[in-house]
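Structure record:
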Amino acid sequence: MYFIFDFDGTIIDSFQCVIEKFNLLSKTFKFKEIPLEEANSLKNFSIQEIIQQLNIPLYKIPPVLRLARKYLHEDMNTLSPFNHVASVLKSLVDSGMTLGILTSNSKENVVSWLNHQKISELFTFVYAESPLFGKKNLLKRVIKKNKMPREKTYYIGDEVRDIEAAKKCGIYSVAVTWGFNSAKILSEHHPDFLIDHPQELLQIK
């Protein structure tokens, strides 16, 4: 079996840090700041809906993401994995699973963090691309490059767009409720698996 993981909000608890970096950029790029006390309300919206709420023009998204990743780099090694995630990842590898990462964060950020956490050897690849949308094409590329049989491949993520990408690629979608999107909006998009605790990954067959 093959488990492809999203990174932010799935493996690493970076939500608060990401909000802080976007607020720093709001002045430069002139979009709405996110009050920290209201940040959790964003969990009930897709990324497209959030961009509309913040009034970020589409043409500004690439430079916003580039700078956000750059600012994140400064704090990466201060961020922690979600509880029990590291031990579950090790158990998955020990049971014969092949693990990889597909993320819209930068590869430099991800590899630096994995090395800091001493878990980089658990992953056979880290595939990083910048587009905020269009995960389907990136996921297809990863599946093809690594010769993964679709009936044995799972994409684990914390956002609606992760579910959509997995479905469009004909692989299993596993939505985790401890990350960015809420259990409510994730369940409305009908993932194959909806899990509340990392240990539940060990029960997927």
Summary: The mean pLDDT is 93.
